[in-house]
Amino acid sequence: MDRVPSAGSSPIFEALTRRITAVREHIEGCCGSERAPDVRLIAVSKNASAEHVRLAHLAGLRSFGENRVQELLTKQDALQDLDLDWHFIGRLQRNKVRQVVGRVSLIHSMDRLELLQEIGRITRLKGLVQDGLIQVNLGREESKGGFLVEEVEDALENLLMDRNLRGIRLRGFMTIAPLEATVERIREIFRDLKTLRDRWKRFAKEGFEPQELSMGMSSDYEVALQEGASMIRIGTAIFGERSPAPA
Questions:
Q1: Domains of the chain from N-terminus onward
Q2: What is the pLDDT of residue 208?
Q3: Can you say whether residue 27 is alpha, beta or left, with left for phi > 0 and alpha for psi between -120 and 50 degrees?
Q4: Max Cα–Cα distance, the chain, nearest Å
Q5: Other CB atoms within 10 Å distance of the CB of residue 1
Q6: Residue 224, C-beta contacts closer than 8 angstroms, at least 6 positions apart
Q7: Distance of alpha carbon 159 from alpha carbon 120, whole angstroms
C-alpha cells in the first residue's frame, strides 16, 4: 500500500483542498448562504484510492459514494479509523444486497421492484432498517436503471403497502441526467424530479419520508442546485480524472 504523505507537504492534498473549496463556493453561489449548509456534498470516490479518500476527509469531507460493492467494502475496511458516511450510488445487483445493507447510510439507486424486494428480505433477516432513494429514469435511457416516471406510483404503493418492505425507509428520489443532453433538457429533468418529490412529500409518514433530491454530478450540479437538489454526487470535480480500477 502506498504511504500517504503528510497533508502539509502533499500536492494531492493541496489539489483536493482547492477543488473542494471551489465546489463549495459554487454551492453557495447557486443556493445562497442560508440554503448552502443544507446541501449534502457526496464525494464520488470511484477509482480513487483509500489514501486519497483519507486526504479528502482531512480536507473536510465526510460523505463518500461508491458504485461498486467490492470497492466500497475494501475502502471501508481500510478506513475503519475514520468517521465516514458511506453511500452506495451504483447499480446494485440482487446477489450483492446482503453485502451492502447496513453498511451504508443511504442507497441512492433503488431502481426496480425486484431490488426493493431483496432489500426488504435482507433487512428482515438482519433486523435493521435501510434508508434509500427511488431512482427515476426521467431521461428514459435504456442504458440506465431506474423506474420510469409512470412506474413510480406502483413502486411507492408497494413500499407503503407491502409489510415485507417495512425495512426500507424511503428518504427521497434520485436521477441521472443524460450525458449529452442540453442544459435546457437537464434542467427540465431535475425540475420534474422535484415536482415528483413534492407531490409525494404530502404523504410522508414514519418510514416514508421523501425529502431528499439526489441529482447533479460534476458536469451539471450547478443546474441541479438551482432546481432544488439536496444532495449532489461529485467525483471528477473533487478527485480529478481517474484511471479505471483494475479488474
A1: 7-239 (3.20.20.10)
A2: 94
A3: alpha
A4: 56
A5: 7
A6: 190, 213, 215, 216, 232
A7: 9
Tell me the C-alpha distance between 42 and 164, whole Å: 30
Residues found in the chain = 247
203, three cell numbers: 404523504
A 10 A CB-CB count for 149 gives 16
Side-chain-side CA neighbours of residue 206 (13 Å): 2
Task: State the 10-residue block means of pLDDT for the chain, 247 residues long.
Answer: 54 95 96 93 97 97 98 98 98 97 98 97 97 97 94 94 94 96 97 97 91 97 97 97 59
Give the list of residues 6+ apart from residue 239 with CB closer than 8 angstroms, or none: 16, 19, 43, 44, 45, 48, 52, 56
- Angstrom CA distances, 33 to 28, 64, 114, 198, stand at 6, 23, 41, 23
Q: How far is CA 21 from CA 29, 210, 214, in A?
A: 12, 29, 21
pTM value > 0.90? yes
CA-derived radius of gyration, the chain: 18
